[in-house]
Amino acid sequence: MNPESNTHLDPAAEANQLKPRRWFPHKALSVYMVIVWLLLNNSIAPGQILLGAFLAWLIPWVTQAFWPEALHIRKPLLVMKMSVVIFYDIIIANLMLAVRILGPVNKLQPAFVKVPLDIEHDFTIALLASIISLTPGTVSADLSKDGRYLLLHCLHVADPEAEIRLVKQRYEAPLKEIFEC
Fold first, then answer.
1. Residue 142's beta-bridge partner residues?
2. At 111, phi and psi to the nearest 5?
3. What is the pTM of this model?
């Protein structure tokens, strides 16, 4: 058998081959992981920095085969702005939830809300669902099979349409700009 006859594989066979491992597959994620590690340990001791850096390199390196494609952040300043918005929303939602839980229970208006999605990338949809679930009083309950609708459970909804507009404007639109453009 001629060894040169196997040099051109069909596209399906090429896709099934393992991608070569890169030494630093997700640099931004690694930096973020070191920062989170140091914050969780509440220490900037040299040993914690080294351990955090090692784990921040090792975990992405070991898991890189599970990442289907590299993540490209198109607007890094918008990421920072959105992080502030999310943090603010979490604080306000905690306060509002405390007032609602401590108040009369019969005034709560729980509801399921079906949010139509404009975003298409699986990672972006998962990130949106996670952000929504981070804010107390709301939980991402389901994603339609076609990925076009996200079902939310909200502890208190006076106007479902207003809730949909809020999710789309406050979270989905910036995520679409950041990752999908």
1. 151
2. -160, 155
3. 0.66
